[in-house]
Design a protein that fits this description.
alpha+beta, Erythroid Transcription Factor GATA-1, Chain A, two-stranded antiparallel sheet, 2 helices, 2 strands, 25% helix
Amino acid sequence: MAATRVPCPTCGKRVIWSAELSPWRPFCSERCRLLDLGAWFTEERAIPGEDTPAPESDDDADGNDLN
């Protein structure tokens, strides 16, 4: 049976899906894994969702300042 191969999400190189042969799977290397992580940290990548409005504070609700 042939080994399952998947594309590296960062560079596209084909990676064997095996813990013993590919410790960084689904990435081909630690470098590609870290590049992907950096993209999430800098918000180059994000999961789409709905924008939520900022919650109103008690001050703004009735126009009176509580202080």
